[in-house]
Amino acid sequence: MIKLQVIGNLGKDCTVKEVNGKNVINFSVAHTERYKDNQGNQKERTTWVECAYWTDKTAVGQYLTKGKTVYAEGAPDTDAYMNKDNQPTSTLRMRVQSVQLLGGNNPDGQQGSPAGNNYTGNTQTSASTATTPASNASSSADDLPF
Fold first, then answer.
1. 144 to 86, 133, 134, 137, 138: CA distances (angstroms)
2. Is the pLDDT score of 6 beyond 90?
3. Which of 29, 49, 94, 111 falls 20 to 30 Å from 6 in CA-CA distance?
């Protein structure tokens, strides 16, 4: 499997649709790369990734609004076609397997997204509540199971 990982800002509010009895959340993620060309001029290039997230947990859609920063990962796909000027072009798409909201405030300043929440498939887990095995100070090497 090829895995695509994208961190970027949403270009518009997501859309939630039902297709053949299954829910899909569609959204666009933009990543802007800034660099200098050979002459030393500052340049900017934006890459858009069209995302389709098939999930039963569509509640995350209320947080996928224009300008929000997200991390998404999944399988890449491309779509090649001729544009209206009859020039070959392509679109980068991703079948999202998980999406994480990276925080940020609403324009009115109120907290609007559960920052750090990770949505994977049909389950929702919070990165902030993820647990790691706690070390027990009273444990000795003889108590280890290996």
1. 67, 13, 13, 13, 12
2. yes
3. 111
Task: Assess whether pLDDT exceeds 90 at residue 111.
Answer: no
**Each residue of 63-86: pLDDT tens digit?**
999 999 999 999 999 888 898 999
Token couple for 118: 């990770």
Q: DSSP for 92-130?
A: EEEEEEEEEE---B-TTSSB-S-TTEEEETTEEEEGGG-
pTM of the complete model beyond 0.70 = no
Determine phi and psi for 60, rounding to 5 degrees.
Answer: -60, -25
Assign 9 to helix, strand or coil: strand
CB atoms within 10 A of CB 75: 13
- Which CATH code is given to the segment(s) 4-127? 2.40.50.140
Rounded Cα gap, residues 29 and 33, in angstroms:
13
For residue 63, the model assigns a pLDDT of 92
